[in-house]
Amino acid sequence: MPSAANSHKHRIAPDRLIPAILLAASAVALVLRAVSLGSKGIWMDEAYSIHLARLPFATLIEKLSLESTPPLYNLLLGVWIDVFGTSALAVRSLSTLFSVAGVALIGLLAARVFSFRTAAFATALLASTPLHVYYAQEARMYSLLALLGTALVCFALDYQSRRATRSLVGAAAVSLAMLFTHTVAIWLIAGVNVAFLVGCRERPVLLRWIAAQAVVGVCYLPWLVVLLKQVGAQQLVLEWFVYIWESKSIPAHVMDSVGGFTLGGYPNYFAIEDQLAAADWVRGAALLLVGWGVIRSRQLAALRFTATTLLVTVALSLAYSQFLQPVHIPGRTDHALLPLFALLLALGMDAVRPKAVGVLVAVGWVAASLVILLPDSDYAEKSVSRNYLAAIQPEAGDVIITTGKTYAETEYYVDAWQLPVTLLSFPRQASEHPGYLNYDELRGTPGLLDSDADWIVQKCRRILRAGNRAIVILVRPYEVNSIVVSRLRRAFGPEAEVTQERHWQSLLAHPVHLLAFESTRR
After folding, report:
1. Which of 64, 191, 299, 467 gives a 20 to 30 Å CA spacing to 90?
2. From CA 169, how far away is CA 187, in angstroms rounded?
3. What would the DSSP string read from start to end of 410-446?
4. Is 2 part of a structural domain of the chain?
5. For the CA atoms of the chain, what is the radius of gyration?
6. Full-model pTM
7. CA 110 to chain centroid
């Protein structure tokens, strides 16, 4: 880590106190993230991560060509699953590990380049921020991305101040790991590179940095073939977000991110269609504190580096979203910037005078985070998939047919509960790639849907030939799904009846209907 001891000796935390603050912050972070970690149900995105993590490598790469993410997290999760299993507690604990490590790392960075008080504030803020806790409890790659982003800033600052080769190598390795964790990492890596170029005054140091980053680019080249396919499919993968992006101005999206970084709704991005909002005064207060910290510490190279990184990253993400494809999703794709924002916010709190007022502001901020966080720690909406599948478990017959985007979670619970059923999907491609389904494309190929519906009916006839077991079908309210429902009604009408018809509101507000066809033949 870089040290500013030569110019700011009075501000730097004594080395003997740093382990204590990091250990305390990590312990608090772990406790907050352990609350209800395994009790919430696995929802669609998490089930999709588990689905991908269990695939052979070649199949995983093929599936990801229709997605928007690289394979690193899925590979790590696959190894984790081999060791610890697929329970909700097991698969989420990997993200928890990344998140707690991220809290400790931001504290270490703050202590080395700013002050002990800033480190205490930064770790307390990040440990309790609702969005950071949320992703620590989700089997997705966002906690890993945030940890790697913080590590990249640490290595870059260390190399800039100490010229240590190990930091140069570390920065290159972390950059490559970020690129293979999520495509949006490109913006943060670009932000760090701009900050380094602006802040570096020694040509040899700058040239070595550029050479190391060029090596990263060369190592990333094999993935570019897949990335080009992903860019082509990106508009379809994120079609749900396009109209939300277009409904708001650029400043509104920025304020949505600020809301996610502070005391916004929990979890934030599920409220994005309305307003990803902490109260206006909260967001305003956060920006004022950040601004005050920047003004008071503007002479520090580490401050200028961090602020430049954050601003450039946000600007690139917004520009790409505005002019090419909307990918800046507040509360999700900006998550890697949350630790840097918490660091600048902590710096502002440290700059408040008298010091006791700054402490009170920090304590009040953490208390407000806990008030938001703890009552919603179980986040019942995540358990919707588990609940409706548990409801059909006792009566599940020989076949469960999933439609829309219900395949991944159904696959997860059928496997976890060891249900003796055949799992089918409509359209068939929903089982081949359960995280991606383009309904506009499907409506343009009615022959394919008819063929898939006929295939479903034939499979059901063969399976049910011997008895009176039920066919259970989970239906999302998409027009194309009516094809398979009507085909099943016609196929089994004379000898079957609909014994149940219920619906549940799913996590992203798409109702899931359950219909059970049971043979009347005796």
Report:
1. 64
2. 20
3. HHHHHHHTT---EEEEESTHHHHSTT---HHHHHT-H
4. no
5. 25
6. 0.89
7. 25
Domain assignment of residue 9, yes or no: no
Q: Are 150 and 340 in contact (CB under 8 A)?
A: yes
Q: Do residues 113 and 30 share a domain?
A: yes
Q: What is the widest separation between alpha-carbon atoms in the chain?
A: 88
Please indicate, yes or no, whether residues 345 and 455 belong to a single structural domain of this protein.
Answer: no
Residue 514: which pLDDT band, with cuts at 50, 70 and 90?
low
Q: How far apart are CA 365 and CA 358, in angstroms?
A: 11
Whole-number mean pLDDT of the chain?
84
The C-alpha atoms of residue 339 and residue 322 are separated, in whole angstroms, by 25
What sign has the CA pseudo-torsion 280, 281, 287, 290? negative
Residue 513: its H or E element? strand 511-519
Give the residue from 377, 398, 425 where a domain finishes.
377
**C-alpha to C-alpha distance for 253 and 276, rounded to whole angstroms:** 9
Say if residues 260 and 268 touch (Cβ distance below 8 Å). Answer: yes
CB contact at 8 A, 86 and 415: yes
pLDDT tens-digit series, residues 277-315: 567 888 899 999 999 999 998 889 999 999 999 999 999
Q: Which residues contact 74 (CB under 8 A, 6 or more apart)?
A: 49, 52, 53, 55, 60, 64
Q: Mind listing the pLDDT tens digit for each residue in 233-251?
A: 666 667 778 888 888 899 9
Query: What's the pLDDT at 64?
Result: 84
- How far apart (Å, rounded) are the C-alpha atoms in residues 346 and 343? 5
Helices (H) then strands (E): counts for the chain: 23, 5
**Same domain for 357 and 398?**
no
The tokens 């496997």 sit on which residue? 415
Residue 371 sits in the same domain as residue 404: no
Same domain membership, residue 393 and residue 350: no
**Do 282 and 266 reside in the same domain of the chain?**
yes
Please check whether residue 19 lies inside any domain of the structure: yes
DSSP 35: T
Q: 423 and 323: one domain?
A: no
Whether 301 and 409 map to the same domain: the answer is: no
Name the token pair of 124: 């307390």
Q: Cα angle vertex 78, ends 399, 431, to 5°? A: 30
Of 443, 339, 458, 341, the residue nearest 401 (C-alpha): 458
Residue 5 included in any domain:
no
Which DSSP string do the residues of 319-356 spell out, in sequence order?
HHHHHT-----TTTTTGGGHHHHHHHHHHHHHH-SSHH
CA angle (313, 319, 325) in 5-degree steps? 110
